[in-house]
Specification:
Layout (H helix, E strand, L loop, with lengths): L2 H4 L8 H14 L12 H8 L3 H14 L2 E4 L3 E4 L6 H8 L2 E3 L4 E15 L2 H7 L6 E13 L9 E11 L8 H6 L4 H9 L3 E12 L2 H7 L6 E11 L4 E10 L3 E3 L3
Antiparallel strand pairs: 1-2, 3-10, 4-5, 5-6, 6-9, 7-8, 8-9
Length: 255
């Protein structure tokens, strides 16, 4: 049966957008999981009863969004953020250490709780105030690349994250603790939420007393605070994140 008969909403949008939405839906529902190859253009055209050109345009947009990756001579795969670290670093990492050979190799989970969304958090995430959200705090530790987990590093950034509970119903502190270094890989691999777009706003800030103590600096101390809204392939806001970074150790990268 043609796609526009299977899914009547497709009639109200361009056909390739309907194909794109249906591919994304199947990925969200784990029909095609992260790292797996999806059917080729001919098979998808037959599945949705559309032209190969329509499928090609839908796939192109999903590749551009980062949901899919093409591998020459092999096929098209669902992008695995946990494994494809080069992609996730290019796509999502804006603040990086100044010193060569140093990276944020570790993160410490400081807080994981469920709270009602404040007016500000709800407004930014587009949800109703008091809706349950997960509130997460982390300390990010910079260390020499290749350093062991027990080798000392320097706390140089602080994460504060708000996640709608209904978007992440299965996320727990224990799961979070096992995957602290691959945040968007965690969202995708453990919760089926693939971030495809972010909106960032950077401001000058000062660290608070708790942050100053953790970073070993005296107050007042300058920082960059990055406010990020993250969206999935449907355009839904799935994460509000504040990343506060010590300025004399890191710099902002414009991607």
């Amino acid at each position: 049966m043609p796609l526009n008969q299977l899914f009547p909403a497709v009639q109200r949008k361009a056909l390739y957008e309907g194909v794109k939405d249906e591919i994304a839906r199947r990925i969200r529902q784990d029909v095609w999981s992260a790292g797996t190859m999806i059917p080729n253009e001919i098979e998808l055209a037959r599945l949705f009863q559309v032209s190969q050109g329509t499928v090609r345009r839908a796939l192109h947009e999903l590749v551009e969004a980062g949901l899919l990756v093409r591998r020459q001579g092999k096929g098209t795969f669902v992008n695995d953020y946990g494994l494809n670290r080069d992609f996730t670093d290019r796509q999502f990492v804006r603040i990086r250490p100044d010193r060569e050979g140093v990276w944020r190799s570790r993160a410490r989970l400081v807080l994981f709780e469920e709270i009602p969304a404040s007016l500000k958090v709800a407004g930014l995430l587009g949800i109703t105030p008091t809706t349950p959200v997960l509130h997460v705090r982390r300390e990010l530790v910079a260390a020499t690349i290749g350093a062991g987990e027990n080798e000392p590093g320097v706390v140089d950034a602080f994460d504060e994250i708000f996640l709608p509970r209904d978007v992440f119903p299965t996320l727990t502190a224990e799961m979070f603790g096992k995957d602290l270094r691959t945040l968007y890989g965690l969202y995708q691999g453990r919760c089926g939420v693939t971030v495809t777009r972010v909106e960032d706003m950077a401001k000058a800030a000062l660290v608070n007393p708790e942050q100053a103590a953790a970073a070993g600096v005296a107050m007042p101390y300058p920082a960059i605070q990055l406010q990020r809204l993250s969206f999935d392939v449907t355009g839904r806001a799935v994460e509000l994140r504040y990343l506060t970074t010590i300025t004399d150790r890191c710099h902002f990268v414009f991607n």
